[in-house]
Amino acid sequence: MGAMMQAFYWDCPKAEDKEFQWWNVVRDAVPSLRKLGFTALWLPPMSKAGNVGGQSMGYDPYDYYDLGEFDQKGGIPTWFGTKQDLQALIKTAHDVDMQVYADLVLNHNNGADAQEVNPLTGDKNWTKFAPKSGKFPRDWEAFHPSSFRTHDEDPFGGMPDLCHYNPYVYGEFLKFARFLVEEMGFDGFRYDFVKGFGVWIIDAIQGQRYTKDGKPYKPFGVGECWDNKSVIDDWLNRVNATSDNPVRAFDFPLRGRLKDMCDTPGWSLRNLPHPGTLMTSRPTDAVTFVENHDIVRDHPIVSDKLMAYSFILTHEGYPCVFWQDYFTWKLAKEGTPNGIAALVEAHHQHAGGMSSVIYLDNSLYMMQRSGWDEQKGLLYVLNSKPTAEGWNGARAQTRWRNTTFKPIAWTENADGAPKVQVTDGSGRGEFWAPPRGYAVYIPEEA
After folding, report:
1. Does residue 373 belong to any structural domain of this protein?
2. For residue range 289-304, what is the model confidence (pLDDT) as tens digits?
């Protein structure tokens, strides 16, 4: 697959003085992102939020069908804009063959209109929802505990916890997913906090028989299962056990490994290919990433972050780039070979086929992609030595004989660019990368 852009970060409308205009900000970025090789956008939750205490990022849904159309919860637009703005963004993306993924919050709600007494417990809770869209109104029976179920996997943040075992709730979510795909034009879903509810509701949403442009359509899906490899494996196995449209998962174990690589002096690169990540054991299920809107606030990568991006944008998996890294913190470096933009281009044009490690020690990692179809492959070098120790390289066996390799992406360095390299008749060649950096080479026929 291509590369995904997480097109938001926490409080982005306020941080960039673009409150109620964020959809337009993203729409303006679409043409240049697509030209570089981005193939999809992951958008924040689009429904009108509870906005308890002020405008929110949408992870506290109130009216699922109000995408910025009804005057409630502080105004007509969501924090990101109006429904018309959202539709214009989706159309702009589709016009350049770019997919758009909706962030689905299925576990909890907020901002109820009134309290109710739950007759099963005698407790008074905020569970009466009368949204102005007139769609999916809810009362205490839509939440836990209800006559259908006492509880499910895990509540969140004290918000009313939806009961998907209630046929009404289950059916309404299927209708909402169909609305997003068939009427709004979304191409897939990111499922928020999947540890909070049964896997079967995702299987049902993914497995619905959708139609787009008069043809059957299967949406993309990826779940946020923030945990270790064994828990994510178990979740993937359960959610996809009977599915004909399986979902992927974000590779949180790999992200932890990449943070250690960037921020821990002396961390051995021998750890990179070890088992324990989705990318190493089930790459077709892995959505790889460096930062996201949650993890960056408490556990950011603070050193040499481009090393991490170079890794996910050269290896298997479906890489996701974080908006704040790309734009706000200016790691894109468009027009140069030294940032995320050049790595996305390398990924898009050359990162095909299986990867294989061709050299590895504590401070040097070398990998080749074999190529597939029009993507002819690449050679990747990662050097974790400190700046004072300079460039690092080695002679290694490649799959290409008598081939000239040119560098197309590398860490900016005072000593200049990596040099063109040539393999001999047996396929052996010497490849280098700058200190605390990387270099991506492509064979001449690419």
Report:
1. yes
2. 999 999 999 999 999 9
- The answer as to whether 281 is a domain residue is no
CA distances to 41, 137, 432 from 333, rounded to whole Å, are: 20, 47, 22
Residue 302 burial class via C-beta count within 10 angstroms: exposed 0-12, middle 13-18, buried 19 and up: exposed
Pick from 169, 111, 101, 183: nearest CA to 136: 169
In a shared domain, residues 245 and 365 = no
pLDDT, tens digit (0-9, with 9 covering 90-100), for 111-163:
999 999 999 999 999 999 999 999 999 999 999 999 999 998 878 888 999 99
Q: How many domains, in total, are found in the chain?
A: 2
CATH number, domain with residue 406: 2.60.40.1180
Tokens of 405: 């390799």
Angle (CA) 300 306 312, round 5°: 90
Domain of residue 124, CATH code? 3.20.20.80
239-292 per-position pLDDT tens digit: 999 999 999 999 999 999 999 999 999 999 999 999 999 999 999 999 999 999
Domain end marker among 225, 250, 275? 250
Last residue of a domain, one of 208, 224, 250: 250
Residue 62's domain comprises 3-250
User: Percentage of the chain with pLDDT > 70?
Assistant: 100
Residue 316 lies in a domain: no
Integer CA distances (angstroms), 155 to 107, 126, 159, in order: 7, 15, 7
Average pLDDT over residues 384-397: 96
| Same domain, yes or no: 28 and 151 | yes
The pLDDT of residue 87 is above 90: yes
Determine how many CB atoms are found less than 10 A away from the CB of residue 394: 15
404: in domain: yes
What is the torsional sign of CA 181, 185, 188, 194?
negative
- Is omega for the bond preceding 145 within 30 degrees of 0, making it cis? yes
